[in-house]
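Comment thread on ticket #2218

A.B. wrote:
> Attaching the input chain for the structure job we discussed in standup.
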Amino acid sequence: MNKYCSYAAIIYVTDVEHESVMRMFDWEDLAVSGDEQVYKTAVIQRDGKKLRVICAKQDEMGMTASATLTTKIVYHFHPEYIIMAGIAAGTGSIKKETADQEFGDVLLATSVWNFSNGKYVPPKKAELVFGEIGFNPRPTMVTLEGSYFDEIKKYADSDKNEFCVHLGPLASGTAVVADLTVLKTRILRGFNDTEGVEMEGYGVAYAACHAVEPKPKVIIAKSVCDFADDRKDDNYQKFASFTSTGFVKDLIEKVLPYSEQAVIE
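C.D. wrote:
> Ran it. Output below, let me know if you need it in another format.
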């Protein structure tokens, strides 16, 4: 079995997320022969040992791009952890009487599910009806679990954590959601404990969980920048990117257990 060749790899999508990720560590460009993707690398110290971190920005939004980039990173770098940081829409007060999420709160995925899967059918045969369009959802899910996740939850609940963290499912889809009707009938109807909505996490988790050995452990930690309604705008994207990457940086520098295989000799 091949050993881990790096400690952690961070994937992100937008230019706003890129700015926050670039502030995390002292990155250097890393070229891979035959691959046009731009990678960056940094070396950090943990317990007197050196660990390599990789990051890469998707060239477009969506699960196809995230699954492809995850697969390439696993192939090139064999990271012990594959981490997606960035921004997401929170479910806010939709599923509860009072709002339990604020802008910048971190949504830590315990699972990610694809709400786009399904079949368009005549309305009279549909579970969900939108005007004259009928749809039967067939969601698929990847559960994230393991001893490393127990360490993350312990840290998130501790006084050492400076960020507000919500644990629960995240929903991934093929389009941006900015309508409460879609959120209520299409997403929360499927899994009413869903904490947020985004477009890439399922692709990362699926690709990582079906990768060749050694499979990376998956962390999806995105922060709330809007609430998927008609007030959706970009005003809180920088702040959400800041809190997401701040929490991920803490995990990398303080929390995540690492294998001796990932240590730079």
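A.B. wrote:
> Thanks. Noting for the ticket: The chain has one domain: 6-262.
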